[in-house]
Design goal:
With 350 residues, the chain is of the alpha/beta class. The protein has 14 helices and 10 strands. Helix 1 (37-49) packs across helix 2.
Length: 350
């Protein structure tokens, strides 16, 4: 495994971040394909053996059970100071807004619940999961700054935002003396490269770490289109929403990934991630089987030539925004976002 600094921080992270959305009680959230705690522990233990020290979860994942599984496994298999743990919080609910819960109080409640789920005193990176149009960014930044000052998070990151939103937020934070966002977790992979328009160059200029999710496009970049589909591929409606509409144009790139994988005698996972690793700090790679994390770890050692990188990139055509980013508009402020169900479940169980 190779390691690098997370942007301007002193966090030394593995070049692969284990994405933990696939861990958690499948009966308590959006996803029917998540794996139980026993299998979660096997994968996390294997990740640690391979040198993966960076783990990303969220309070929304299966109503907090992902955080619970991850926390217990890391406490049993690793020293706290040897791992970098990231989790995320959700926007305020409509009921919170109506009852007068401020953005600051909301964030305090969220971090306390996450720390309880994880069984930890602090997280290394606390991530603003999606832009909350119903809460002033000043309140979000103030709340996050309080979390950092209280020692409950070492740094803060952001996910699912536009470059202008990140620039605005960090400018306000600098003016007010608040903690600034040090990382961005956006939707970025070989068949969805819209982040390259503004976010990638902005983060390069500001030394803000890129830790993209959907690094393998929900498995589409790790297997040939005609291969047998996995349980997730069959049941993940959100992934289908993001990728099925562009499947035909994306297949050209996927076939080129397969071609290079055959050339090198490696997996498609390794080729897809080797490309992404030339662009970002540490991609978030989900794993629900041992070979998923094993293939991701191997990608760190694969170097593609400039010609091969260009060959993979050449067929790309612009894509429309999908998922959370497609909802990131002021006029959608009162609509339910994709994690609404999980958010409500979290509320009801408190």
């Amino acid at each position: 495994m190779k390691y690098t600094k997370l942007g301007k921080t002193d966090l030394n992270v593995s070049r692969i971040c284990m994405g933990c959305m696939g861990f958690g009680d499948a009966t308590r959230g959006q996803h029917s394909w998540t794996i139980d705690e026993a299998h979660t522990r096997e994968i996390i233990k294997r990740g640690l053996e391979l040198g993966v020290n960076f783990y990303d979860t969220a309070i929304a994942y299966q109503s907090g059970t992902s955080e619970q599984y991850v926390g217990r496994a890391l406490r049993d298999f690793a020293k706290r100071e040897d791992v970098v743990v990231a989790t995320k919080f959700l926007p305020r609910t409509q009921s919170e807004i109506e009852s007068g819960v401020t953005g600051q109080k909301h964030i305090e409640n969220m971090i306390n619940t996450s720390l309880q789920n994880l069984g930890m005193d602090y997280v290394d990176l606390y991530i603003y999961h999606m832009w909350d149009w119903n809460t002033p960014i000043e309140d979000i930044l103030d709340g996050l700054n309080r979390v950092v000052k209280a020692g409950k998070a070492r740094y803060i990151g952001i996910s699912n935002c536009f470059a202008w939103q990140l620039a605005k937020a960090n400018a306000i934070a600098e003016k007010e003396g608040f903690a600034r966002f040090v990382s961005v977790q956006g939707h970025y992979n070989l068949i969805f490269r819209e982040e390259e328009r503004e976010m990638v160059p902005y983060c390069k200029e500001e030394n803000i770490a890129l830790t993209p999710y959907s690094a393998l496009a929900s498995g589409r970049l790790s297997r040939k289109p005609d291969e047998q589909k996995t349980k997730r591929a069959s049941e993940d409606a959100y992934a289908k929403f993001k990728y099925d509409a562009t499947a035909k144009q994306d297949s050209v790139i996927i076939n080129r990934v397969s071609e290079l994988a055959d050339k090198y005698g490696v997996s498609m996972t390794e080729v897809s991630l080797a490309w992404l690793l030339t662009k970002v700090t540490s991609p978030v790679v989900g794993a629900t089987k041992l070979h998923h994390i094993e293939g991701a770890a191997k990608a760190v050692s694969l170097t593609l030539t400039d010609d091969e990188l260009a060959y993979l990139e050449e067929p790309y055509t612009p894509h429309s925004l999908a998922g959370v980013m497609a909802q990131n508009k002021r006029e959608n402020a009162k609509d339910k976002h994709v994690w609404s169900t999980g958010n409500q479940l979290i509320r009801e169980e408190k």
